[in-house]
Design brief:
Radius of gyration: 19 Å
Number of domains: 2
Number of strands: 12
Number of helices: 5
Structural class: alpha+beta
Order of helices and strands: EHEEEEEEEEHEHEHHE
Helix content: 10-25%
Strand order of the largest sheet: 1-8-11-12-2
Length: about 230
């Protein structure tokens, strides 16, 4: 089972029964055009430098083309019906977790934690954390799978140009990122809509300005909802 990182605001929205979505950059040249989705494609593909490769690719991929050349997205897409476990901001009283969290990658302490787990998105946990513990929340990226408490289902997947997303989607994305953007700096402007371009450039492209708002790159939008197992 694959994972998805959600902000505190997104988790609250999901837990109330509303749908949400994740926005991801598609790292293909902006001048290429989206063709379709393919499962397990086998094709002669081209990288950004024009070098060709003959590949059998497993999974669900987005296909782009330029001048009849096929180019496959380098990162596999989520597909409709996928179930993902949620990574969120958390805290553990486990002394092993506390002393080793800065060195974690995706796999962390594999031992069951009997010391109590706090989740930032849970109101009572958040109040207790700031009143009693007052430490730094652990990164959502470093949450081990066995501590995840939520599952979400992918209900839709779209490939589109960044500048074509709707105002409602811009508000959703800005609300999801406002906490990260305002931690220690003033990257987030006062309004969600006017600040979307700055938010994108500061939080999504890691300095790769060829994918900036002005260049209108391709993005993948995955709609998600809370998954309740039968």
């Amino acid at each position: 089972m694959n994972s998805i990182i959600l902000s505190t605001n997104q988790i609250k929205q999901i837990e109330k029964g509303y749908s949400s979505f994740s926005l991801r950059l598609v790292r293909v040249p902006t001048e290429w055009e989206f063709v379709n989705f393919e499962k397990n494609p086998f094709a002669k593909t081209f990288d950004e430098n024009g070098n060709s490769h003959q590949d059998k690719l497993k999974g669900f991929w987005a296909i782009f083309s330029k001048e009849a050349k096929k180019h496959t997205m380098k990162q596999m897409l989520r597909k409709i019906g996928d179930i993902l476990y949620v990574k969120e901001k958390w805290y553990s009283g486990c002394k092993y977790c506390e002393s080793n969290q800065d060195d974690w990658l995706d796999v962390v302490c594999a031992m069951p934690c009997d010391f109590g787990i706090l989740y930032k998105a849970k109101k009572d946990d958040k109040r207790y954390f700031y009143e009693v513990i007052n430490q730094k929340w652990f990164s959502a990226k470093k949450m081990p799978r066995h501590l995840s408490r939520l599952r979400v289902e992918v209900t839709d997947v779209r490939i589109q140009r960044l500048q074509t997303i709707t105002e409602a989607e811009r508000i959703n994305v800005c609300k999801a990122n406002i906490q990260t953007a305002n931690e220690g700096n003033e990257l987030m402007p006062k309004t969600f809509l006017n600040g979307f371009a700055d938010m994108w450039n500061n939080n999504y492209i890691n300095g790769e300005y060829k994918y900036s708002w002005d260049n209108n790159p391709w993005v993948c939008i995955s709609s998600i909802k809370k998954y309740d197992a039968l």
